[in-house]
Structure formats: C-alpha cells, structure tokens
Amino acid sequence: MEELPVPHNIKISNITCDSFKISWEMDSKSKDRITHYFIDLNKKENKNSNKFKHKDVPTKLVAKAVPLPMTVRGHWFLSPRTEYTVAVQTASKQVDGDYVVSEWSEIIEFCTADYSKVHLTQLLEKADVIAGRMLKFSVFYRNQHKEYFDYVREHHGNAMQPSVKDNSGSHGSPISGKLEGIFFSCSTEFNTGKPPQDSPYGRYRFEIAAEKLFNPNTNLYFGDFYCMYTAYHYVILVIAPVGSPGDEFCKQRLPQLNSKDNKFLTCTEEDGVLVYHHAQDVILEVIYTDPVALSLGTVAEITGHQLMSLSTANAKKDPSCKTCNISVGR
C-alpha cells in the first residue's frame, strides 16, 4: 500500500485570539485515501514536551478530512497573544478503527491575536455589572518618586511624556506593550471626596484639574477589566485628544464610551460648568495619550504611606476569576 502524502507548505491565516485557519499542500498520489487529519498544537515554550511523533500514536486533534483551509476553533482553549507550534499528518481510518498515518509535516510557528473589540465589549459588559454608584471628583492625579519629576523638569522640558503600557491586566489586551500614555488615577475617599493620601507609586503627587485632561475635545475608551487574586477589580480607561495618534490607535482597537453616559467615568455640564464622576466599586486606571506639562497642575508630597503591595506594575490577571474573565482565553 502506498504511503499517504505528507502535508507541506503549511499556511496559517485568519488568526484571532482563539481561532485560526490552516491549509497545506499535498501530493495527489493516494490523496483519495485520506479520511482524517491529525493536528498537533503546542505552546511554543513547551514544544519539546508531549510530542508524540510516532506513526501509531494519535495526536491532540483528529479532524475529518474537510476541504482546506480548515478552521480550528474550540478544539483547544487557545490563549490570546500566545506563540504556538503546529504540525500535521494525513490519516486513513481502517475498517478495524485503527489509522494509517503519514509522516509528520514540518513544524511551523504562529502567534494568536489580541482581543478584538467584540471580546473587549464582553469584558466591558462584565465590568458594567460591578461598577457601582458614581462619586463626584475634580482632579486627576499621578504619584511618582521625586526623581521622576526632577527628570521630567531637566530632560523633557517640564512635560511628562507618554510611555508604552506594561503587560499588567488581561493577557489578550490590545493596549499592553503597544499603547503609549501616562497613567492617572481619579479615585476619591468616600468620606472626604478627595484623593487618598496613600499611594503604591511614590510619595510625590501631580494633581491636575479634571477638565484639563477630560473634556469635549477628548474621546474616552474602555481598555481592560481585571483583578490580581483580590476582591477588588480594576478598570483601565483611555482618554485621547480627538484626532491624536492615541485616538486613532484606540478607535481601531477599543470600544468607545459615551463620555456623558457610562458606568465608569463621566463628564457632564451643569449650569455651564463641567462636572465629573467616577465609579465607586472599581479602581480606575486612566491612561492619557498625550504629553502633560507640569505647569498645568501642582506637585506636592503626600502625607500618607507608600503601599507597594497595591502596585499593578506588570501584574498578572487572575485567570480563575468568574467576575472579570471571558470564555475565549485569558
């Protein structure tokens, strides 16, 4: 009996955060005997483990021989933004239920995509549920060490510069490692209506009137929703001046929020004055995408403690939390 054709020239296309299409070429010889495909998919870091590259051992996915390209979705719990290796065999199911298989194809590598707007909208809807009531606030603030502000004054013309967002939050977030911005907070203490005196990020605080960053000339986007094995949750929002590079980046990738009517951060007008509210039951991390001059606000030392345990720098999201995870991966 002639050997089955070995797949070659494998192509991966239509990659999303939890699916892809795969196709390959085969010699026409014995092609009509093919009843199934065996596909072996591994995370790249584990490519040397659990590799059953023997003719008589079924691999991780046995699929009926459908016309190519074949869509792979739901067969594995694919994770977003993750590198995988894939190899293919052709197979012929025998009368006794066993398979005759070809040699393995070459191993190729690919990377799954970030969350799409559809997936982020699912996260947004989950965050809406727990956002809680809205509290009034009047300033955005940013805590850092004294050395940070000294450096801004000496090397950046007294203006804080956007930097690339770290990898904290959802693994599939399209802003991690890509969006440039400056982190601000706006949370207030329930009893005082003012920013808390403690901070995980440094003892010096830049405060700026809310209308200087968030106004009718800016757009507001939902960026992420996550927790770090804790009871409280974080929501990342992005404020971008209309038409700026940051605005164009977000418009393509993130759900846009109505600045006057959403569950997290609002800017409304009352008697000709802009009024601001933030959600009480989530911790908001606000990214502003343009440089911000220190002259637009004030820098002063806080009187509270530096609570390093609350830092979210490169923090990993809890993949088991039912509140802030969606079903397409982590």
Automatic annotation (TrEMBL):
Residues 6-115 form the Fibronectin type-III domain. It comes from the Eukaryota. InterPro entries: FN3_dom, FN3_sf, Ig-like_fold, PHYHIP/PHYHIPL, PHYIP/PHIPL_C. PROSITE patterns: FN3. Pfam families: fn3, PHYHIP_C. Belongs to the PHYHIP family. May play a role in the development of the central system. This is Phytanoyl-CoA hydroxylase-interacting protein-like isoform X3.
